[in-house]
């Protein structure tokens, strides 16, 4: 029986020391530690979350999601953090929802407790989040990577929605996000056959912003470089930029362009717009106030 209390239990961070901090740690700003994830801040303004259930190929258990959402909330509220990176390890970003935990779930338990719904917390963040994928990103792992704002992967990453082989279907947005990127025919083929696709294909079909040569180290460095760059800009403009791109998913072109223009107008009320444009004219580097 799935431990349903895990679906809604509040987080208490475990006080044990982190077991295997990434070698990149230079700017450690987070003191909490967890059982299923590792948090660190390896670059200025960047929060890094590493999924850490290597023996289960980072299978996404309810307990992992309680911790992940707690860490995301802390980064969202941390004024020192401007962008977040979510990653796994060389073997797996995540091999899907935890099948062993999920197997005995009844319809009533899944429905009443809105199983999987807490996964969507990530999509409510206003700060940008980049997934750095190497190894397996299957089922819920593929869906989690696709929920992020920018998806980076290795060319050899192994994506797929194999739920059909388990007698079920994607449950964390895979049918919607895959179809938005790949188009109906390709998404239908992937979901109904359970065939996997490579990181190289993810880039070719527009699911990934970039597929990197090499392994986990290379894709993580690429994601951290991009996150650091984003975090160096005005937080106000970055949040506005994310908001208007996301609106394009919901609105038609005409309403989307009007929406963008209104947000663009509103930025003339920010200090950072004045600072940024004056710095350009003065040939100086802008010093953002994030206001
Ligand atoms: N859930 C729970 N445990 C998992 C898991 C998962 N999704 N994926 C892997 N594991 C566990 C395995 O059971 C195994 O544990 P034990 O050592 O205790 O037996 C360990 O991780 C290592 O896995 P394998 O021995 O299977 O490793 P492999 O290299 O031979 O195969 C793999 C790798 C092809 C990814 C294979 O593990 C696999 O097929 N995993 C399941 C992938 C899958 O079906 N994902 C979709 C889940 S459903 C879902 O996500 C629903 C949704 O939309 C939200």
Automatic annotation (TrEMBL):
InterPro entries referenced in this protein's UniProt entry, alphabetically: ClpP/crotonase-like_dom_sf, Enoyl-CoA_hyd/isom_CS, Enoyl-CoA_hydra/iso, Enoyl-CoA_hydra_C
Gene Ontology molecular function terms on file: enoyl-CoA hydratase activity
Nucleotide-binding recorded as keyword: no
Biological processes, Gene Ontology terms: fatty acid beta-oxidation
Lipid metabolism is among the record's keywords: yes
EC number: 4.2.1.17
Keywords carried by this UniProt record: Fatty acid metabolism, Lipid metabolism, Lyase
One GO CC annotation: mitochondrion
SUPFAM superfamilies recorded: ClpP/crotonase
Family the UniProt entry places it in: Belongs to the enoyl-CoA hydratase/isomerase family.
Protein name (Swiss-Prot/TrEMBL): Probable enoyl-CoA hydratase, mitochondrial
């Amino acid at each position: 029986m799935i431990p349903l209390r895990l679906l809604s239990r509040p987080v208490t961070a475990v006080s044990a020391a982190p077991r295997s901090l990434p070698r990149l740690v230079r700017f450690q700003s987070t003191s909490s530690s967890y059982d299923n994830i590792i948090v660190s801040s390896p670059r200025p303004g960047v929060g890094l979350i590493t999924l850490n259930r290597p023996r289960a190929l980072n299978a996404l258990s309810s307990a992992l999601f309680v911790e992940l959402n707690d860490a995301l909330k802390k980064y969202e509220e941390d004024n020192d953090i401007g962008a977040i990176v979510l990653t796994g390890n060389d073997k797996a970003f995540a091999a899907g929802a935890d099948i062993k935990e999920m197997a005995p779930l009844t319809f009533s338990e899944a429905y009443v407790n809105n199983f999987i719904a807490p996964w969507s917390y990530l999509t409510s963040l206003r700060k940008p989040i980049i997934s750095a994928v190497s190894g397996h990103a299957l089922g819920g792992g593929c869906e989690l990577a696709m929920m992020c704002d920018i998806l980076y992967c290795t060319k050899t990453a192994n994506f797929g929605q194999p739920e059909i082989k388990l007698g079920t279907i994607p449950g964390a947005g895979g049918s919607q996000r895959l179809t938005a990127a790949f188009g109906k025919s390709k998404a239908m083929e992937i979901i109904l056959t359970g065939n996997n696709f490579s990181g190289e294909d993810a880039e070719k079909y527009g699911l990934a912003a970039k597929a990197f040569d090499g392994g986990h180290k290379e894709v993580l460095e690429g994601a951290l470089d991009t996150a650091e760059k984003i975090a160096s800009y005005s937080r106000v403009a970055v949040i506005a930029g994310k908001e208007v791109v996301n609106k394009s998913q919901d609105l038609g072109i005409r309403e989307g362009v009007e929406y963008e223009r209104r947000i663009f107008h509103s930025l003339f009320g920010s200090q950072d717009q004045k600072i940024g444009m004056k710095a350009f004219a003065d040939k100086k580097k802008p010093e953002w106030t994030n206001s």
